Amino acid sequence: MSIEIRHVTKRFGEAVAVDDVSLEVETGSLTALLGPSGSGKSTLLRIVAGLETPDAGEVILSGEDATTLSPQKRNVGFVFQHYAAFKHMTVRNNIAFGLTIRKRPKNEIRERVEELLALVQLQGFADRYPAQLSGGQRQRMALARALAAEPKVLLLDEPFGALDARVRAELRDWLRRLHEEVHVTTVFVTHDQEEAMEVADRVAVLNRGRLEQIGSPLDLYDEPASEFVMRFVGDAHDLGGALVRPHDVALRREPGDGAVEVAIERITVLGADARVELVDGDGARLAARLRRDEVEELDLEEGEILWVRPERERVFSS
Amino acid sequence: MPRFVALAYLTAVLLAPLTMVFWRTFQHGLAPVWGALSNPETVHAFKLTLIVTAIAVPVNTIFGVAVSLLIVRKRFPGKGVLNAFIDLPLALSPVVVGLSLYLLYGRNGWFGSWLLGHGIQVLFAWPAIVLATIFASVPFVAREVIPTLRELGDEQEQAASTLGASGWQTFRRITLPSIRWAVIYGVVLTTARSLGEYGAVAIVSGRIVGRTETATLRVDDSYQNFDLTGAYSISLVLAATAVVVLILMTVLKPKEQMA
Q1: Closest approach of chain A CAs to the CA of B164, in angstroms?
Q2: What's the pTM value of the predicted model, to 2 decimals?
Q3: Which of B156, B166, B173 is closest, CB to CB, to A72?
Q4: What are the respective helix, strand and coil percentages of chain B, to the nearest 5?
Q5: What gap in Å lies between CA B195 and CA B238, rounded to an integer?
Q6: Residues near B77 by Cβ (< 8 Å), separated by ≥ 6?
């Protein structure tokens, strides 16, 4: 099912959480809403689910206006950052909730729950209570619960935000694989650009309630539409009034061609790559990223004076 | 040492008087106690108290849960005032409550004259006793449920609604089971308060022996008429009920941590 957001605005008192945002999510896609905290990404997701009502604009689900529809009637699966597990119910009853509400036959529910337990790798945990599960297990249970009634859209609000780094990485891969298997239109909210780039096939970048850009991870990185996107998605440094990515910084031993004089502050080797931290005459810092053999070839040393020139740079009018 | 002080304090303030009541009641054996308790007027007083409690407790439970949901989950003007108002019966002397009911439902009161004109007697009849008891026991359910609801948060309820549950289904399957111990605790306190209400009821009931006299009023009545065995026996029943209530609460409470 496709999602269409048309000119949606939401205020909380004086603060504008979502400011005239329009975007489209295609059927079967895996889209990330990416932005810093306070960018309105969670509010936008909650508006799609019907958990918040927009002050203006429309939400179209599968071509039908759902703006005033209650969450109950939208048939979306929603996963909360802090799991929202039903604490007084077993894992089985948590997962079965949407089906029980819909009064599906008992054996159908049992079969579907078994299927989902297998999908989220929680067989053997069916009769436990959420308090007896780890954070990662609880979130997988919440996912199974959201998927149980076969929602047309799956919405995840910072689903991995409360988990530690290792579990996070595991669940990321797992979500990616799940999406390939189940193919339900999925939108997830994250403030972690790496997470968005790794998992999603489309990323919408939000800033202060406004949509900055929507596109594939590659588009955002290579063709950022604004200074904000350039800085937020991947590293970016100021160099001679423009913005440049670390791997687009060329190092030279000789001046010329408008190159800027810098001193090497620090060289860090990261596997096959190296990161050279530089500081110019005004004390402004930037970093260049190059291959390790390039560093060895240039025979770079900390404290040396060099000239840098951007191979590719961007200037954004603000 | 602090433990000893606390224990001594509780003994002096609570345990000693209760023990005295117990001892006095059975001073002359079982027969006079049984005689006092099976007195038809006393039996009537107990019945009346039970009936009044049976009305006041469900009414205040429903009201308490509803008003808690309103205060914790909704935004509306005047919320703070409502929240403060719930506590009014705790702050107000029951005698004042009784007097205000008297003024409202009396022959010349705002409601009283209209109701009397339609042949409904409130004052000096059971409706007034019920009203006074309800008023006195309003806060208990809400005071237990409000903090529990706050702590619970609304994410589980939101999750239920996205899973297709209606407002009522969400309440029945998610909210109510999550607050059940707070509700039970509130019900127990409401029951205890309803059984023990004295001041407001004393004013509005008219204290007609065998008709509008509740158990607590009966204690006072017996005492005033030098029927000490009667007074002690009824007191003992009330005190025993309180002890049972306490035991029930202690037995029920630990389960909360397990859930």
Answers
A1: 4
A2: 0.86
A3: B166
A4: 80, 0, 20
A5: 8
A6: none
Q: Between chains, do B162 and A71 touch, taking CB under 8 Å as contact?
A: yes
**B8 inside domain:** no
- Give φ, ψ of A275 to 5 degrees: -115, 125
Q: What is the CATH number of the domain that holds B136?
A: 1.10.3720.10
Residue B60 lies in a domain: yes
* Number of folded domains that form chain B: 1
Is the Cα torsion angle B72, B77, B81, B82 positive or negative in sign? negative
Does residue B98 belong to any structural domain of this protein?
yes
**A50 to chain B: nearest residue by CA?**
B162
Report how far apart, in Å, the C-alpha atoms of B125 and of each of A68, B40, B137, B208 are: 51, 19, 19, 9
List beta partners, residue A155: A78, A187
User: Using a CB-CB distance cutoff of 8 angstroms, which residues of chain B are in contact with residue A154?
Assistant: none
- Taking CB atoms and an 8 Å cutoff, what residues of chain A touch B174? 86
A223-275 pLDDT per residue, tens: 999 999 999 998 888 887 788 898 888 888 888 777 888 999 898 888 888 89
B78 domain residue, yes or no:
yes
CA B123 – CA A128 distance, rounded (Å): 56
Q: What is the ipTM of this complex?
A: 0.87
Domain ranges, residue B150? 40-258
